[in-house]
Amino acid sequence: MARKTILVVDDEEDILELVKYNLVREGFQVEIAVTGEQALEKAVSLLPHMMLLDLMLPGIDGLEVARRLKWDYRTRCVPIVMLTAKGEEADIVTGLELGADDYMVKPFSPRILIARIKAVLRRNRLSKGDKCEIIRINELVIHEGRREVLAAGRTVALTFTEFQVLVHLSRRPGWVSTRSQIVDAVRGGDYPVTDRSVDVQIVGLRKKLGKCGAYIETVRGVGYRLKEP
Q1: Domains in the chain: how many in total?
Q2: Does residue 161 sit in the same domain as residue 217?
C-alpha cells in the first residue's frame, strides 16, 4: 500500500523535526514547506492526503493559504489541520470557517496530534457521496470526480475513453485485466471488442503520461496492468 502523504507547513525548525519524526514513525510520507508560497505550490503539485498548517508564516499567512486552497478546485478537497500558537477563540472560529477540518494549539501532544490526523483521514475516507476521492500511484494522481490526472505534477488531458481505461486499471494496481475486461468496464458488454481498439488507447495513454506511462505494463498474451505502488 502507498503511504499517505502529509504536507507540513511551518517555519519553526524544531516543530518541523518533531512533527516529521512522529508522522514518519506512524508510516506517513512527509513533505515540508516553510512559507505560504511554498505551501500553495506543493499543495497543487503533490495533492497531499492532508496538510498540517501553521498560521504565522513568512509571506502569505496560514489563513490566506487555507482560503486559496479551498477556492482552488484542484486542492479544495485536501483536508487541513491547523497547528498554531494562535489559540484565541476568534482565530479558531476563523480557521474552521475557512474550511479547516481541525485546529490544534501549540504546544501540543504528539500522540493527540497523530490521533486527530487519523480521525480526519478516517472521516474523509468514509464520508458518504464523497466526490473528492483521489487515486495515487506513485507520481500519478487521478481525481475521478473531477476527471483530472496529474503525472509527475503535470496536468494531463485525456479523452473520455483513455481516462476510463486508466481509472479501471488504477482501481486494482498489480492485477491484470484482459482486453475484453477493459472494454467491458469502459464501454459495456455490448461494445465490440478488438485487441487493436484497446492497444491504441494504451499507446495514447503511455505517450500522454510521459514517464508515468511506464506504470502501465503489458502482460504478453493476456492484457495490461498498472504497477503496484
Answers
A1: 2
A2: yes
168 and 220 Cβ atoms separated by less than 8 Å: no
The pTM assigned to this predicted structure is 0.61
Q: Where are the beta strands (DSSP E) in the chain?
A: 5-9, 29-33, 50-53, 80-84, 102-105, 134-137, 140-143, 148-151, 154-156, 177-178, 216-219, 223-226
> Which residue in 142, 139, 129 sits closest to 74, CA to CA?
142
pLDDT at residue 198, rounded to an integer = 86
Query: In this model, does residue 125 exceed pLDDT 70?
Result: no
Q: List the CATH number of the domain containing 82.
A: 3.40.50.2300
What is the per-residue pLDDT across 149-158, written as a single tens digit (0 to 9) for each? 999 888 898 8
Angle at 81 between CA 138 and CA 5, to 5 degrees: 10
Strand 80-84 with 50-53, pairing: parallel
